[in-house]
Design goal:
Chain lengths: 224, 224, 224, 224
């Protein structure tokens, strides 16, 4: 099973990160990882997952999987499918794709059985404690009101990062904590790490940057 | 705020427990409570909540509330509404009405602010630990496959009751544990209590009984 | 079965329209109806439905019902429940409580079987045509972007009203058309009727008015 | 834009149709199409879509797309994505992935704008009339209770096929009708066509067959 990368780039459904652009972004992540020795994971869309995983040497995470067993489940993406496509892990419960508590529980277990690394998103420390109680590999705290703003959570709401780290460790010692929302540069990353986070989850800060490769280089500079 | 009653009867959407029949059932609960000194709470439908709460002297719980603030939320039932209707608390996340983890978190907090007692349902010990991490007043563990079967969870799957009690206490010492699914008589209740549960959540065992009053009397006999 | 009232007031989940305030609003509607001879229907929350229906003599509509048959459906509100509570009909598919197409189909049929008048909301003419194809008693077109703005659909987007009337009549001759979103006075109502609507669905324009009774009197002045 | 193929094979989330097995199944479809001159379309999972579309020469349909515009929509699959992956069209509203009426309306329009062929599933003639009112390229009627049974809808419930054809044509002359559920051989296909359907939607009858290629050859024999 893959470690949780200290920098995880979520491609979302941005046109800038679909098809060939997904591949380019992943290659830029690979290049910066090689240069700096800091692992950068990428989260392409379901549709681009297999191609990115087969052509680029970085940890690849799905953006979501469904709480569906293989079988008669039209339109669902199972843990089995993403593993077979070469994914190392998956985001779960992103604020743009929230899950039922019970489904989240089922899917964490199913991912574990498939050897997939699980990163469960949560909006605050209380949700993070509940997410942590499912014993995923990581909890990523992202206050939804900061997503896409460029105002980093580590600056706008440092307490939420500290409270999340405390809440998660209380219920699941081995779960690491990422923080996201508004993260755009190395200073933000450094601040997040100093607040107790193990890494960051970023999206628009890289995907919509004029120079995504340079943006990743900057982010990585904040990792000690 | 109301204590969590040791016996909580969920009327669901049974025709046998709508309108005037809801009132009769609640009166039977009141009578058995008075006779025995064991508090029996009732969970009528949204539509019958106000009438039952105003006419009968038992703890009244909603079957669900929505994670909606007062305002422009057509068709939603807010914590404020059920409190104003006279409810003492509410079930949340019943297997027939599962909630998003984030909504469940928001609604637990909103209920607390309204002085409503929260009973969060969960399918097993892992879900119960996540539910417990939200610090509700009670977690009710109900393996969905046993609901409505007449085979009590305390007999079919005693481990799930014990594991739930342990998991919940681990994350929230003050949260009590109910158990449900297949409970029909005092023996089942007694077994549940011996496994560490603080009470039971029942539905068809009372609502569909030939003599619901007698069924409640029998259930209550299992409370020490 | 009740006719579709030409003015239907949706109480939503506004604090101003819960409990005793729901009753006062419904009484104001009753008073204006009696004075003017124009029927005003009211849509209280699930929790206030029974009390409003038993104490006030106006058509009472639920804000929503679930596509659930009576039985083991915790937290759901069935057509049977609202009829037994005294409702004459129900809104369905409001923009704040959208439904699956298949559930909407099932629930329209179930409401018909219970003798409930169905008012299906839709965001535009195409959705209205699909809604009309289910043959409800009324389709209410409400462009979501105008809800609560005070800018009436009849002024901001008159074409949507005309196109909806045409689309609905094309698939279901007997279905009437209401229009909503931003309606606050008699001028708006008059404009809606001139565009081919049979009536209006209003909420904040009445519920949040300084003087709801006066607001209803003004609205009704637009009915020919 | 692709025509609607007279035989459309839905791979669902069957393990038998994931990854390399998806490719093999699609190649078998290609072979039978070439042999017989009857077009067979395939619906692989999101994860296999791009690879099947690039390596096999048959019409490729997604199993679903989300009503999401490109952008900040983690875990969603947009019409743009599947088109860029090489899909010709998509299933929508399958009984295992039902959609909100409003989302279905939005996504039909978005697919049309991307040049994707839309096949909207419906459970019966009334739902099919509503689906047809959205003017998709095809409506596929599949009584959910027959899915996966091997009892063909054309035999178990011929009236539903006839009623659907009539209902759809009433609201959208150019929309074709497929029928599905329980279809396994050429006799079933022939019966469906005689009832007025333009083609069939099949899944387990092919995917779980001992010899899927032979199963497709048999199905195709029923096309006139």
């Amino acid at each position: 099973m893959a470690e949780v990368p200290p920098v995880l780039v979520n491609f979302k459904a941005y046109s800038e990160a679909v098809g060939d652009r997904a591949l380019s972004l992943a290659r830029a992540a690979e290049k910066v990882s090689e240069e700096t020795g800091v692992t950068i994971g990428v989260c392409p869309s379901h549709v681009d997952l297999a191609r990115v995983a087969s052509e680029v040497d970085v940890p690849v995470f799905a953006q979501a999987v469904d709480a569906a067993e293989p079988g008669s489940r039209t339109g669902h993406v199972t843990p089995e499918m993403v593993r077979e496509a070469g994914a190392d892990g998956t985001l779960l419960n992103h604020s743009e794709r929230r899950m039922l508590l019970e489904d989240l529980k089922d899917v964490c277990l199913a991912c574990m059985n498939e050897g997939l690394t699980t990163v469960v998103c949560a909006s605050d420390a209380v949700a993070a404690r509940a997410a942590g109680a499912l014993r995923p590999h990581a909890v990523a705290v992202e206050p939804p009101e900061l997503i896409g703003t460029g105002t980093p959570v580590s600056k706008a709401d440092p307490e939420v990062v500290e409270a999340t780290v405390e809440a998660v460790k209380e219920v699941s010692e081995d779960t690491v904590v990422l923080c996201g929302a508004g993260i755009t540069d190395g200073t933000d990353v450094k601040a997040a790490i100093e607040l107790g986070a193990d890494g960051v989850l970023v999206a628009s800060g890289v995907v919509l940057a004029d120079d995504p490769e340079e943006a990743m280089r900057d982010l990585v500079s904040g990792i000690p």
